[in-house]
Amino acid sequence: MSRPFSSGLTIFPEPLNMTLSITSLSTSNNILVIKSSIPRDPTQAEKVMDGEQQLNTWEGYVDWRNRPAAKGRHGGMLAASFVLVVEVLENLAYLANASNLVLYLSKFMHFSPSSSANIVTNFMGTAFLLALLGGFLSDSFFSTYLIYLISASIELVGLLILAIQAHLPSLKPPACELGNVKNPCMEADGGKAGMLFAGLYLVALGVGGIKGSLPPHGAEQFDENTPKGRKQRSSFFNYYVFSLSFGALIAVTFVVWIEDNKGWQWGFGISTASILISIPIFLLGSATYRTKIPTGSPITTIIKVVVAAMFNTCKLRNPSNAVMSMTTSPMSSSEINKEQDSQSREIAPREAPTESLKFLNNAVIDNPFYLALECTVNEVEEVKIVLRILPIFACTIMLNCCLAQLSTFSVQQAATMNTKLGSLKVPPASLPTFPVLFIMILAPTYNHIIIPFARRVTKTEMGITHLQRIGTGLFLSIVAMAVAALVEIKRKGVAAESRLINSSEPLGITFLWVALQYLFLGSADLFTLAGLMEFFFTEAPTSMRSISTALSWVSLAMGYYLSSVLVSLVNRITSSFGHHPWLFGNNLNHYHLERFYWLMCGLSVLNFLHYLVWASRYKYRPTNPDT
User: Fold this and answer.
1) What pLDDT score does 46 carry?
2) What is the pLDDT of residue 14?
3) What Rg value do the Cα atoms of the chain yield, rounded?
4) Which of 292-296, 355-359, 365-369, 521-525 has the lowest mean pLDDT?
5) Looking at residue 111, what DSSP letter applies?
6) What pLDDT, in 10s, does the model give residues 446-463?
7) Side by side, which strands form the sheet with 57-62?
8) Helical ranges in 220-351 per DSSP H
9) Closest alpha carbon to 94 in 138, 116, 126, 135
10) What number of helices (H) and strands (E) belong to the chain?
11) Which has the closest alpha carbon to 247: 400, 93, 101, 128?
């Protein structure tokens, strides 16, 4: 009820359980107007604000200033576009030297052909293997954003060292003529060799860091919890391979021509300028990037789970240890009940580990023997994922071994053939442009024609799964090796008919026959590399995505190493039976290259069957955002 006031004004009683804070009084038409503020519960207000912030920000991601990444402002195709442009420049800088480095080492540093080939192989293999280091640091301690900037700076320093050495004659061995006894060629040694290898391996370290951080940085820009985001991420990996090829095309044509005709200092200079320009372009996209927050060392988690599983398995075999692991310190039954009641209110029921790789389930026990080996179910499941993708990784090494033939025997085959296209004479070293061009044509065709058609036919989001795509690449590598063997049989047949077996004259057969194997191997590379990178990124735990994606580059390095091992083994085995080694000598017409290609084809078939076994047993991770 209202109560009369002495002045004739009327006020209303304050509601119960409400605190009024009168801030001002005024009268209007005999009504007392009370302006008040009613404070809310601060805890509830903070919860509402936190909820609104979570809805508007990407959980687990920050911007370049280490602030929460905002939805609608950070990430997306625009941010990934900067990564694609940077990759063109980075791969140009790397391949411009790697593709023609053998010539520089033998002609200007006076290393022997075999030593030059070994130096290049070690350089390229080390660069790709160091991608693991870049991925590990991106996942563990730094972000992909910082690792790229650090790695690009390191590569820039290495290229500057090489450019300075190529420019100044005093930093190279003196010029000489091959076979001139009076002026013998002196191999680079001492400080000159030290400067050369310092530059090369700084470049390798930088390339490894970039390969391990740049692809996952681009892939992180998409929302994996929506079909649109997953489709855009798949397109990103296709165009990432396109960017690799675009940079390679410029490197093996324009830059190689500059190195051969204008001087190596210009070639190293172009590479230096390319990587230098890539850094500000990458920084231009800083305002659009969302960067995953590092979550600690994934290798530590893997080691802890494996060691805990082994240790607990051994301990639990002892009945007394098994009983002790399930008991607690002595206390009364009432104390136990109270403790259990409090724990049940505070801790949610623990999820049981999956049935696959049951051995690792032993890492999770109620009372671990050592607290340092205490593992959660989530940690065990993450390690299981990593172990399941390793067989897929191993099956791709043979494909990359086949790809290694593009830069070795295939080039030598073309060098013995007619390399004219009309009035234009194509240098055999430019043959890598064929697979590069094929990939640049196939990448957009695959993304805009093949995949949409497959989605309509299969009525699935992906159209073609990652494992189907990788398997297609492995099958194409089998076809490529069979085609290479048939082409070599035809080439040697022409040489025999023309009686040019012992001659170095060009054969009357066009080098375009060799382009057929480039077509199939280039297609295989597109299907497998893009599919493999997307597979590793998608399937790996969030805390291990960078290092898992880096496995694609490790597979490439191991494929090149395996190629060298196979050539050595074939020569050793064939010579041990009193025959001439299949792949030895200066005349390619005396080689049994067709037999080697058939061997590679057979090994690829076995590898493909092995892949089918693992691929048929693999179960993809669900696309639920909570997994």
Assistant:
1) 53
2) 45
3) 32
4) 365-369
5) -
6) 889 989 999 999 888 888
7) 68-70, 57-62, 291-292
8) 227-250, 256-261, 264-284, 298-316, 319-325, 333-346
9) 126
10) 23, 9
11) 93
What is the phi/psi pair of residue 432, to 5°? -60, -10
Report the alpha-carbon distance of residue 200 to residue 65 in Å, rounded: 33
d(CA 244, CA 115): 28
Running DSSP on this structure, what letter comes out for residue 370?
A: S
14-18, 155-159, 254-258, 496-500: least confident range = 14-18
Q: Which residues contact 503 (CB under 8 A, 6 or more apart)?
A: none
Residue with tokens 């021509």: 257
- Asked whether the beta carbons of 559 and 398 are under 8 A apart, the reply is yes
Over residues 167-212, the pLDDT tens digits come to: 888 887 777 765 555 666 777 778 888 898 899 999 999 999 999 9
Nearest 5°: phi and psi at 101? -65, -30
Q: How far is CA 526 from CA 133, 292, 564, 625, in A?
A: 25, 27, 23, 29
| Predicted local distance difference test score (pLDDT) of residue 561 | 84
**Strand (E) or helix (H) holding 48:** helix 42-56
What's the half-sphere exposure (Cβ side, CA atoms, 13 Å) at 178? 8
Tokens, residue 484: 């290479």
Angle at 430 between CA 427 and CA 432, to 5 degrees: 145
> From residue 107, how far is each of 101, 103, 118 by CA, in Å?
10, 6, 15
Of 230-239, 300-309, 355-364, where does the model show the most confidence?
230-239
What is the Cα–Cα distance from 590 to 579, expressed in whole angstroms?
Answer: 12
Q: Which of 428, 394, 434 is nearest to 411 (CA)?
A: 428
pLDDT above 70 (res 485)? yes
For 102, 189, 519, the CA distances from 184, given in Å and listed in that order, are 20, 15, 43
**Angle, helix 113-129 to helix 190-219, in steps of 10 degrees:** 30
User: Is 70 exceeded by the pLDDT of residue 390?
Assistant: yes
Sign of CA dihedral 251, 256, 259, 264: positive
Range scoring the smallest mean pLDDT among 78-92, 296-310, 532-546 = 296-310
CA distance 549 to 559: 17
Q: Which of 63, 61, 68, 134 is nearest to 293 (CA)?
A: 61
Return d(Cα 374, Cα 353) in angstroms, integer: 15
User: Whole-angstrom Cα distance, residue 37 to residue 477?
Assistant: 75
Provide the mean pLDDT of the chain: 79
pTM: 0.78
Most confident of 270-274, 353-357, 417-421, 516-520: 270-274
Which helix (H) or strand (E) is 42 found in, with range? helix 42-56
